Amino acid sequence: MKERDPKDSPSDQAPPPAGNGGNTAGNGDGHEGGNGGSNGNGNGDGKSNKNHSWDVVDNQLQKPTVPEVYPQVLALPIAGRPLFPGFYKAVVIKEPTVTAAIKELMKRGQPYVGAFLLKDEGLDVDTITNIDQVHKVGVFAQITSVFPATSGKEETGLTAVLYPHRRIKINELLPIKEKHSVAAVEEVASSKTAVAEEGDKALERVSKKAESEFEPEKAVVQKSEANKTDSQYATSFLADDYAVSLVNVENFVEPEFSKKSPYIRAVTSEIVSVFKEIASLNPLFRDQIASFSMSQSAGNVFDEPSKLADFAAAVSAGEALELQEVLETLPVEERLQKSLVVLKKELMNAQLQNKISKDVESKIAKRQREYYLMEQLKGIKKELGLESDGKDKLVEGFKEKATKLAMPATVKKVFDEEINKLAHLEPAASEFNVTRNYLDWITQIPWGQRSRENYSIMHATTVLDEDHYGLKDVKDRILEFIAVGKLRGTVEGKILCLSGPPGVGKTSIGKSIARALDREFFRFSVGGLTDVAEIKGHRRTYVGAMPGKVIQALKKVQTENPLILIDEIDKLGRGHQGDPSSALLELLDPEQNSSFLDHYMDVPVDLSKVLFVCTANVLDTIPGPLLDRMEVIQLSGYIAEEKAAIAEKYLAPAAKTAAGLEDVNVNLTPEAIDALIKNYCRESGVRNLKKHIDKVFRKAAFKVVQEIGEDEKNPVEEKAEEKKQDDATAATEAKPEEEKQVRKPLVVSKDVSIDINNENLKDYVGPQVYQTERLYEKTPPGVVMGLAWTSMGGTSLYIESVLESSLGPKSTPHLSKTGQLGDVMKESTSIAYTYAKSLMATHFPKNKFFDKAKVHLHCPAGAVPKDGPSAGVTMTTALMSLALNRPVSSNIAMTGELTVTGKVLKIGGLKEKTIAAKRSKVDTILFPKDNQADWDELPDYIKEGLTGVPCDTYKDVYDVVFGDIKKEEVENVWSDVLKEEEEKKETTTV
């Protein structure tokens, strides 16, 4: 059962004015009974009362009395807060059986129930199944009126207005009989409706007359003792016809007290004082207090402290348990004390609410006043001509910027349209800021503004050589670009793509190119980019829309001909927001980027003068149409000599300066650099080498500080002047600037000297990472060094083959393959095996190795996936080496794909593979004849010490590797083993 919110209907808690016997109901004294509802009949239903008779004394109509003893009542569980004697409360009842029972009580003239607070706040029921569900102390209440809970045609419950008369206590909960169906209950109720309607009409006529003649000041005539029979209060019919909660109760009578008790009068005075404070803060309380004062028969609250305590608890919004304690407390002194505590909390809430309300009102009033004054000030300044409207200033500023730019005609037209729109928009309009931002962007683009380029080839060569060692292809391409521009007098933008392993200087060379050309530089990365709006911009209709990265670059560099570096173009993503690689097609196409259309700007922007430089580790992941628009320059990894030169000229001096050892005698010897390259940093680039050199100099700096010690204090230079002020002045006056202290660098004596050489290098970088140059110093039969290309550069890749079991006449051939090989390499393995068997059968028919051998072919480093079409020659050579039982020279490396007919096919990455071969200390490299041009283009310092052997067919490979073996030796290499097995077989047969 739910209570109606007291905030919605304050009269539910506070009693109405006394003496009101009409529709709004009077308070009804505890011993006199409440009003009856609309008719004042005492039962609250506005219908005829058959059990109560009306007594006339001195021609006055009087109300019936409320029974002083009512041992058994219908129990209603109340949720939220308890009820208090003397104060109305409206409750909502939903269960049909309970509503039907209440209607029957009203018809019988017994509108009395017991209301008890539920212990569980979340429970919402209309019947009590267990006595522990409710608090045992409640109130004996009279139902003054009932009406439907909803305004719909179908009744889903009813609202009953209860008037509590006194406190009662539950002694026993009667068990609920089996519930009747709703239809049965309605049938019982409807059968009695016809009889009741006639009585209702008669009672309505009587009640109208009673309202005009009723005087509450007259004494109520008590009914005769003969009428006070047990049958008048019997509720046994409810148990028979309705599944409701019936309880046996007893009155909870408060002990006698003295109204003149000093303690009672003191607490009463305090409660009245608190009420006055609350009334001054909350008008709702003021009305309730007025109603309570008017309803008191004594006219003085000090004469009725018990009612005052109940009133204080009834009107406060305290916790349910606190209010229940007040209800259960019988001694007036304790009840007053508990009510005072509840009321004090209500006062605190009212004060807090009032404070919040005042703060909000003051802030609003302050803002309104400031706004009013500012508007007045603007109006005065505008009238005096001292200040123009902010919008006019914006328009003038945009027009002034536009005059300094060489906007194309189409852009100028759009600019004028947007300026006119801005001039007619109100600053408060949402489109005002959108238009202002657009005009800000369109005037920030450097239309017709170009930086003067340097066409000096000498200057460019010097700058490029200062920053980078090697990279001849890139430097030559930039010098060609400058030469063309010098001859034409103007340059067009180009799109270059630098492809190579990490750490070879792709990104840093972009900065050097910009410096060599005296161009502005802007870099942005597209690695992992999935949103096409990052390239093409957002539509202006979106909140927070802005142009793409290219337009942002032009705004930052303020020139039409910068160098824009697009990093990691091979790592472009693709998502729900579009395909960024497709958006780059327009940007990087020389035929289209002269009128690049950004979604935000929506005007063509000329990017034909921009030099685009892209970087990538691999070209395979770049879409074909995009790759076709770029001029690719391959950057191979560095050989050991190049790394050593880079370390000595660039890395070591920079690391020494960064470590604060510029003026200290700390030297990294060339031997130590060679050891770093050989034993610690074998990757293609120099990024890892740079990290190790930085680590060496940091360790050296730590040693220097340890040797000098920290006894001497470093001098401190105070740049801010000291101001002498008294403590009082310093406390009141704020210092505009804090005193800054700059620490001087530590001066190191020239006697301190540290040399990092090959002997003590491990003290700085730890033990060696690579112990040997290659996996096999001397290769056994069946093992051959191949060459592979990776995104990190070239590397050596050994191919191993072994016999799984000994050869014999009964052996069957088989080939096992391991090493996490890809599909292409698996096919290469099958081709190599087939060709090796074909070669043996054709040229060496007496060698039955492949007819009997179970061979296992493996590529080491099984955790690394391997794939690619360049290992066929190496695999065939490994199988042939095993079949001939002849090791291949450890100084030979090879690469190339093979067909089943023995043709050696062209491969890629020859430069990287050659560098890997040189790093592995080989002296002969076999490669496809079709790669002869690639070999010829290799720099001499890379080919130095290497002998390149181009091979057209596998016969060329065989002649180099196994050319000194005679045919008889090949045919007889396994003959002894097979012959011994055959002889053993013949001996066993005999």
UniProtKB/TrEMBL annotation:
Residues 1-53, 711-743 are annotated as: Disordered. SUPFAM superfamilies: P-loop containing nucleoside triphosphate hydrolases, PUA domain-like, Ribosomal protein S5 domain 2-like. The active site is at S870, K913. ATP binds at G500, P501, P502, G503, V504, G505, K506, T507. Its EC number is 3.4.21.53. Keywords: ATP-binding, DNA-binding, Hydrolase, Mitochondrion, Nucleotide-binding, Protease, Serine protease, Transit peptide. Residues 19-45 have a biased composition (Gly residues). One of its GO terms (molecular function) is ATP hydrolysis activity. The keyword Hydrolase applies. GO terms for cellular component: mitochondrial matrix. Residues 73-347 form the Lon N-terminal domain. Residues 1-10, 711-727 have a biased composition (Basic and acidic residues). PROSITE patterns: LON_N, LON_PROTEOLYTIC, LON_SER. It catalyses: Hydrolysis of proteins in presence of ATP. This is Lon protease homolog, mitochondrial. It comes from Mucor lusitanicus CBS 277.49. The gene is PIM1.
